[in-house]
Design a protein that fits this description.
The structure holds 2 protein chains of 2 kinds.
Chain A lengths: L2 E6 L2 E2 L2 E2 L2 H14 L5 E9 L3 H9 L4 E6 L8 H15 L3 E5 L2 H14 L3 E5 L1 E5 L8 E8 L4 E7 L5 E5 L16 E5 L10 E7 L13 E5 L8 H12 L2 E4 L1 H5 L20 E5 L5 H7 L4 E6 L12 E4 L2 H20 L1
Chain B lengths: L1 E7 L1 E3 L5 E2 L6 E2 L5 E3 L1 H17 L1 E8 L5 H9 L4 E5 L9 H18 L4 E5 L10 H9 L3 E12 L4 E7 L4 E7 L2 E5 L11 H9 L3 E3 L19 E7 L8 E4 H18 L4 H5 L4
Parallel strand pairs in B: 1-6, 1-8, 6-7, 7-13, 8-12, 9-12
Antiparallel strand pairs in B: 2-5, 3-4, 9-10, 10-11
Helix pairs in contact in B: 2-5, 3-4
Classes of the chains: A alpha/beta, B alpha/beta.
Chain lengths: 340, 279
Amino acid sequence: MTRRFWVYIEQEDGKAHPVAWELLGVARRLADEVNDNAVVEGILVGHNMEELAKEAIQYGAQTVYVVDDPAFKSYLNKPYTTALTALVKKYDPEVFLVGATTLGRDLAGAVATSIGTGLTADTTHLAMGEVKGTAQKLLLATRPAFGGNVIATIVCRDYRPQMATVRPRVFTSAPRQADAKGEIVREVIPITPDMINAEILEFITNDASSVKLEYADIIVSGGRGLGGAKGFELIKQLADELGGVVGSSRACVDAGWIKYDHQVGQTGKTVRPKLYIAAGISGAIQHKVGMQESDFILAINRDPHAPIFDVATMGIVGDLYEVIPALIKEIRARKEAQHG
Amino acid sequence: MFHALVSIKQVPDTTNIRIDPETNNLIRQGVPTILNPYDAHAVAAAVEWKRKLGGKVTIITMGPPAAVTSLRECIEMGADRAILISARQFAGADTWATSYVLAEVVKAVHEKDPIDLVFFGKQAIDGDTAQVGPGVAVRMDLPVVSYAVKIREVNLEERYVIIERKTESRNEVIKTSLPTALTCEKDIAEIPYASLPDLVYSLRYEPEVWTAESPITFEPALLGLKGSPTTVFKTGTPEKHAAGEVIKTAELGVDGVVKAALDKILGVEGMASMLGVQK
């Protein structure tokens, strides 16, 4: 019997969320960990999905099941849940991965409930493994809990599919192969009046929601050590100088110094930039789980015992209000020297 | 009359949790429990709309008897009725089994006293799953608007609500018919200061206690650990990363640390060109 490893291809206005390609990479690895009857398949719901379906194949989907109808143009919980529930019942996948984005978590929670299966939220590590008392390998879904203080591995023994939402940026994207071959299967979901229980009146784009922390290469983050909202002006200056974006610890968001969109950590975004500068951030575990995979971490803190130094590539013990202005000055000097 | 129900959870304050370095166990002793912060804002929003429209707010929670503290906090904020759902059969429930119990309770409350809006916090800070709200909504076949940041309009005559919610890239304004479920971000409402009468009332308030047998009954196989599709296979503590070099302004001076740090950063392949700075 074919063992299906499914990935939900999240899209907005015909553009895939990059987490979908990360999940196709993970699903491939998981499928390879079981046997040669395992296949990686993508699930796509929306309108005018032809191009995106082809793209999913290039990222490793062997088959893409497409629900394509104007009724599915924009995400709404009920119609999308109805569609995915119908597809799961029809094909009986073994594993179903969904990005732990706002829409993905909303959708996965509803789909798992309506199917009656287990869902592990916000996972950061996935493997197929032997579990006592079960004949086949199970999905071992690992996630932080209690603010990142504990790592728990969750299994779903008796129900299928084994579902998990996966944090964006935890896994690297599957490689894109222009000549990859795959099949596109069109699925028709009857639209019934009871499916339409909500209507989108308007979309509002704002500056705050355009912060793309998860996929930034350079992030400069501020913490409680800034002492107030005004401290973020200095953080922004350094970020601008480096061509980066501004991040924050939870403490500053809770204190109202900066918007939630900037929050890095367990209850914020997981990031893995090439350069992460943490200024005045003590390094509570809930922050560290969101940024410790960064390539280079520079931490600036007055307290030599701050836990942030445990994950820093380089730590500076000192006053950020002295160090950062000096850092900006030095960067400018080097840029000028460069341009002569 | 407007009737809002808010489902809340009492949680350990995760910002205060520590790990015993010797045993790697969670030190629960002395960790305070609090009303889940997102839930507090959901209660605030429900109370705000009750005051605008006239009506009442019912609070429910599934948890141990000690959760009474959080229920009283909701009464203090202006809620009118609180129900503690508590029995050992409920223990060990995952999100699926939790949403079953909550949905049954919401249905029972709704039958006697129809509900217009069912509020949840967007997630609880101990589990961070964000699954219970959508789960309850699906079980009750209610529309669900998650990550709500603002309730724009509640129209009790024409039976609709307009809610603004947040997605990754934008905000969406969504209209649904009542009753609707929503999960709330902190932006949904400010926590109000308690009025003196509410405060005094809350101190003596005793919530109703609902058990597995009374006043409603549940399917025993669907409860608690037994009713949970997922189980914890193992737990551990996060991997420790190797710490890097630490330098001090007290030793090298401000310019000294800045130069050393920049040299090290720019020494990483590709960094100089990415930052546009010379080594």
